[in-house]
Structure formats: structure tokens, C-alpha cells
């Protein structure tokens, strides 16, 4: 299992990472994120472990591919999962490495598995990954 961390981003607060990080996103990604938040809130209340809102841009490196990264925009996260939207169709069960920043600002690369990917609008997919091991810091710990 591989988890790597990069140095903390100076001057970045938890508030910056969870609330205003979408400011730098393309307008289309911001609109689609709001759409998934509005339409799937009831479903998320049924989860065994709740996720917290978490809006950052990340990358997914699919195992066994040429190394190109899939751009993703996170919606929510907990110690074992991340929900996101992307413009790339993913296959459930696919092994990958996800690159994110923790609320502390530290960048991480974590082994994961695609749990779900469904098209919610033409060309946009609502997906989730399961981390290979719990990631502290995403649940406020």
C-alpha cells in the first residue's frame, strides 16, 4: 500500500480547502458540482459512515494505463471514501491511485478502488473511490 505526502501548503486553511476551493474550477465543473449536491443529498444520508463536504481538484491515476491522469473534482470525503465528479467514465472495481490534498494542505497519493461511476448528465460522471486504508484527517481527526 502506498501513501505519500508532500509538504504543507503555506497559508492554506481548512476553510480554504472545503469552501472556496471551487473558485479556481472551470465554471462547468462548479455548475455540475452544485447539481450533484442538490440532487443526491437524500442518498448520502443513508451511508454507514457520513462524509463531510470537501471541494478540491484532484487526479486519478488508473492502474495499467499510459499514466495519464483523470481530472476530478471532489464533493465529499471521509477516512475511507471520496466522492467526486469527472468527465471521464470509470469502471467500477478499477484499481487506481488518487492524488488529493488533506484539510491540512498536505498533498497525498493513495491507492484506491473505483466503487461507483454513473453518468448524471451527458459527459459528466458522479463517482466514488474507496481508499485501501483509512486516511486520517478527513473526518476532522
Flag low-confidence runs: 1-20
Beginning-to-end CA distance, first to last residue: 21 Å
* Rg over CA atoms: 14 Å
Report the top-level CATH class. Answer: Mainly Beta
Kindly estimate the percentage of residues that lie in beta strands according to DSSP: 35-45%
User: What is the CATH topology assignment?
Assistant: Thrombin, subunit H
Order of strands in the sheet with the most strands?
3-4-5-8-7-6
What is the correct CATH architecture? Beta Barrel
- Supply the number of structural domains: 1
| Beta strand count | 8
The fourth-level CATH homologous superfamily is: predicted glycosyltransferase like domains
Q: What is the global morphology?
A: globular
Category from helices, strands and their pairing: alpha+beta
Describe this structure in words.
By secondary structure, the chain is an alpha+beta fold. 18% of the residues lie in helices and 40% in strands. The protein is built from two helices and eight strands. The longest helix is centred in the N-terminal third of the chain and has 18 residues, at 27-44. It is globular and about 30 Å long. Mean pLDDT is 79; it is low at 1-20.
